[in-house]
Amino acid sequence: MRALFNIGVALAVSGGACAGVAAAAPPPPMTAPPSSIAACASSSTGAVPVLLIHGTNATVEKSLGPVRRALLEDGRCVYGLEYDSMQPVSQSVDFFTAAVERIREVNHGTAIDVVGKSQGALIARAVSLEFTDPHPLRHVVAISGPQHGIAKIVAGVDITPLGAQTPALNLLDRAAVRDMLVGSPYLTELNSGPMTAPDVRYTMIASKYDRIAAPYPIAFVDGPNVTNILIQDGCPVDRAGHLAESTDPRTVDLVLHALDPERHPVVRCLPNDDER
After folding, report:
1. Distance CA 29, CA 17 (A)
2. What is residue 44's predicted lDDT score, i.e. its pLDDT?
3. Given the DSSP bridges, would you call strands 152-154 and 157-158 parallel, antiparallel or unpaired?
4. Element containing residue 81 per DSSP (H, E)
5. Residue 68: which H helix or E strand, with range?
6. 160 and 182 in contact (C-beta within 8 Å)?
7. Any bridge partners for residue 158, and if so which?
8. What domains sit in the chain, N to C, each tagged with a CATH number?
9. What 3-state class would DSSP assign to 228?
10. Is the Cα dihedral 79, 85, 87, 88 positive or negative?
11. Distance between CA atoms of 61 and 226, rounded to whole angstroms?
12. In the predicted model, is pLDDT for residue 250 greater than 70?
């Protein structure tokens, strides 16, 4: 029996809202404490459990639905946790750090893979820096995460110069959005030390057509344990943008290949003109 653990109420994503921000945020979801997380079903394959972390003003389904379904088809144990993605990023990191500890505890010390999209990709890397040996994470796969901070939020509108000095501007009235800006106090502190944990593998995925986590190199991190992948390398016909990456076949295949290259050796290259 495939295992899936959902926490909370899904955030609605209004038409035209982006994974980075929304014009008007819905109420935060109700989140259960990590102590309520249960062990993987005994019928799962025994492979490393996977924790999925969605983007801002989204849900696991909106951000990582095809990835989740493919992992479940593989018999993997998947934890899909909803969270208040408008709260300070540090609070979300604390939440998912506790979730990792709980997943490891209930599954008797197993390693864990983490897949994050957008803000979730930043959170995934930040969570990996919260642990030392023995490290509970095996692999972090980060899709278009603002690892170095975002300068453009919506369709080329540069709000970085406004910074947190303009709290009346709706986009910047959200703690998580302010935390993801280039040069924010949160990112400055997070990136002041090592960008990765030495015993964890990282796969960082980005698209040159991303208009939200832009410019796309902000999603990449340098390190001997890091593989940076541009979707268009070897597949220029895939023009998937930030939102479209969630269902883009090549992006999904890249995630699955990173987690289990033997089971998913093929990464498709299909035309995709959805630059949202």
Report:
1. 17
2. 80
3. antiparallel
4. strand 77-81
5. helix 60-73
6. yes
7. 152
8. 3-259 (3.40.50.1820)
9. strand
10. positive
11. 26
12. yes
State which amino acid sits at residue 176: A
- C-alpha–C-alpha distance, residues 73 and 63, integer Å: 18
- The sign of the dihedral angle between the CA atoms of 16, 221, 93, 76 is positive
Query: Nearest-CA neighbor of 240 among 258, 253, 257?
Result: 253
173, 167 Cβ separation under 8 angstroms: yes
Q: Which residues contact 31 (CB under 8 A, 6 or more apart)?
A: 7, 8, 81, 82, 83, 84, 95
Side by side, which strands form the sheet with 137-143?
A: 3-7, 77-81, 50-53, 112-117, 137-143, 201-206, 226-230
In this structure, is the dihedral angle defined by the CA atoms of residues 90, 133, 34 and 69, taken in order, positive or negative? positive
* Model pTM score: 0.85
3-state secondary structure of 135: coil
Cβ-proximal residues to 67 (8 Å cutoff; 6+ apart), any chain: 52, 115, 252, 255, 256
Distances (CA, A) of 218 to 82, 124, 226: 25, 15, 14
What length does the chain have?
Answer: 276
Task: Write out the two tokens for 34.
Answer: 């990590």
The string of pLDDT tens digits covering residues 3-18 is 433 332 222 222 223 3
- What would the DSSP string read from start to end of 143-158? ES--TT-BSEEETTEE
Residue (of 119, 189, 183, 117) closest to 148 by Cα position:
183
